[in-house]
Amino acid sequence: MLKRAKYIDIHDEVLKRVGAIADREGTIAYVVGGYVRDFLLGKEVKDTDIVVIGSGIEFAKKVAKDFGRTSLIIFENFGTAMLPLEGRKLEFVGARKESYRKDSRKPLVEAGTLAQDLWRRDFTINAMAAGLNEKNFGEIIDPFDCESDLRSNLLRTPLDPEITFDDDPLRIMRAMRFASQLGFAVEPGVLNAAEKMAERLAIVSQERITDEFLKLMSF
């Protein structure tokens, strides 16, 4: 069962407008991941991931129309859409659950609940959501007690770390990047799993590994 923690005081006119659109369209919407994490850490937040219950693409089309934008980029194969705005971008996706084949980090995606969407994420610090509808605007949903991890400067995974890294081994490098970027300690079980699952990086393209390595070196 999802834990419902405190509210965060979001003074973001774009998100308020998105929430109003969601109410008008009868859609349940949340801002998730890095936005909530960075807000709680007191960092500047720009790029914004929005999860809706239903079709993220269809909701993104309604948001783009409301904002008078024709620049919506749709990724049909992934069920996502991205709306560029001045100095930021909004990314939309429907809540989903994922499964993986051993020879690929590309997930098989099915519609899911918000809980399932948060369970599939890489680290607990990216597995929080905040409501955007009027009735719960800014209410944090934190099923893994991420706030405790933020206070403790600890990086851990929502699921067993071996499962997390087996599903997508690029998360091994992302663990090192987030630890460096945020100055967090990595939970011992996560480090052990990273070492044990390192050979799984062989299924990741060199381009993605290089990109993650360059991000790591930039901190």
Summary, kept brief:
This protein is an alpha+beta fold and about 220 residues long. The chain has helices at about 15-25, 35-40, 55-65, 115-120, 145-150, 160-165, 170-180, 190-195, 205-215, and strands at about 5, 30, 50, 75, 80-85, 90-95, 95-100, 110, 130, 140, 155, 185. About 40% of the residues lie in helices and about 20% in strands.
Specify the number of helices. Answer: 9
Shape: globular
The total of beta strands comes to: 12
Q: How are the strands of the biggest sheet laid out side by side?
A: 1-10-9-2-3-6-5-4
Query: What portion of residues belong to β-strands?
Result: 15-25%
The residue fraction in helices comes out at 25-40%
Low-confidence stretches: none
> Main β-sheet, in a few words?
8 strands, mixed
Radius of gyration: 17 Å
Query: Terminal Cα separation, in Å?
Result: 37 Å
Order of helices and strands: EHEHEHEEEEEHEEHEHHEHH
Quick check: average pLDDT? 90
| Helix/strand/pairing category | alpha+beta
